[in-house]
């Protein structure tokens, strides 16, 4: 028999199709029943919170050094070593222990120029750079360290960073503020939605944000009129921050 509908011919179903349909029906019913019986997760509110604390730095890192140029690498290195020795002696004379003075970078690089006539790279000389890092727990020594380097032949101040040695207590305070901030946001959101928050379902503490050092660059004094004036420094305040992500159960 052919059944026609909307001017289309529909072929009669085979016995195999009836059998497959009969087998699939119970499976579909079971799947639907399983979905209906699965417990639905409770309504949730997901928020993030951030807390930060301002602390006074108690440690300084000063990076100073010498850069020289000469026709040969040997001459540039010899001149650099001579002046760097004087710089280190002046820094140690301030009472800085040798253990707090570390060579941070030493490099020898050719000074190159492209010759248009010969179409070749020409080495005109060599540049030697030597940078040392000096650490001190006395913030007030940062300026004298820079002065000691510049007045003894140094011509590079790569950076001045103010750090915090013990951040544990400040991190705990910042974490408390972050969680409190997240809870307040969740409470406000729940109230706006006509309900309230119940228990905390999840709390993730993100990596602590290290206080950003305040990098200070200094210029070589050369022969300026105020070359005898001490280098002024101001450590300011460091910010220690932490963020958290939370999930709270929402109830009406």
From TrEMBL:
It comes from Gemmatimonas groenlandica. This is SIMPL domain-containing protein. It comes from the Bacteria. Keywords: Signal. The keyword Signal applies. InterPro entries: 26kDa_periplasmic_antigen, SIMPL/DUF541. One of its GO terms (biological process) is DNA damage response. Residues 1-24 form the signal peptide. It holds the Pfam family SIMPL.
